[in-house]
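Hello support,

Our group uses your service weekly, and this is the first time we've seen a run hang past the timeout. The protein is Acyl-coenzyme A thioesterase THEM4. I'm not sure whether the cause is the sequence or the server load. Input pasted verbatim:
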Amino acid sequence: MCDTAIQDLYAEEFANCFGCGRNNQHGLQLKSHWQGDECICRHTPKSHYTGGVPGFLYGGMIASLIDCHGAATAAAAKSRESGEPISRFVTASLNVDFVKPTPIGIELEIRGKATEIKNRKVTVALQLFAGETLCATGKMILVQLKN
Ligand SMILES: CCCCCCCC(=O)SCCNC(=O)CCNC(=O)[C@H](O)C(C)(C)COP(=O)(O)OP(=O)(O)OC[C@H]1O[C@@H](n2cnc3c(N)ncnc32)[C@H](O)[C@@H]1OP(=O)(O)O
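Update from on-call engineer: The timeout came from a worker crash unrelated to the input. Re-ran successfully.
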């Protein structure tokens, strides 16, 4: 696994995101790392992110985890393909399927893979696991910001 998180390579002006900005003191500060042919993010949500049923995670938080990790996956995949430094991708489309209730209190693992890279557009498929249990899947289209 690469030691440096993708988000730690974002330019300073893109480092303030609530989900993954290293400079956002009130944010989640998610970190994504390339491993093999996919990108991995691990995060343990705090208990107040419940969806109302104690012990289970709010769907909006699940979507946020998938969203930010998907952006990092797209940036890393594009950089690996082009040989250029990490750039910033934003979400154009985000689809989440909630497969099983997601428990709070254990570390979640989100796995992302780029399924298509076409110029500035990258399509990413994601899976969110709690232990061995697949709790959610995502499909995203991300677009590289113009310089
Ligand atoms: C500048 C900072 C923006 C805000 C950052 C927020 C960070 C986040 O939280 S990300 C989540 C929220 N996302 C956003 O706020 C993004 C809002 N949307 C936008 O800014 C623009 O629509 C943006 C950047 C995604 C695309 O605009 P633009 O750069 O003009 O690209 P555009 O030429 O329209 O599209 C590029 C390619 O993506 C495709 N595409 C764009 N949107 C979609 C979509 N929704 N579904 C499928 N394909 C799409 C286009 O068809 C095109 O494909 P092709 O090259 O094959 O023709």
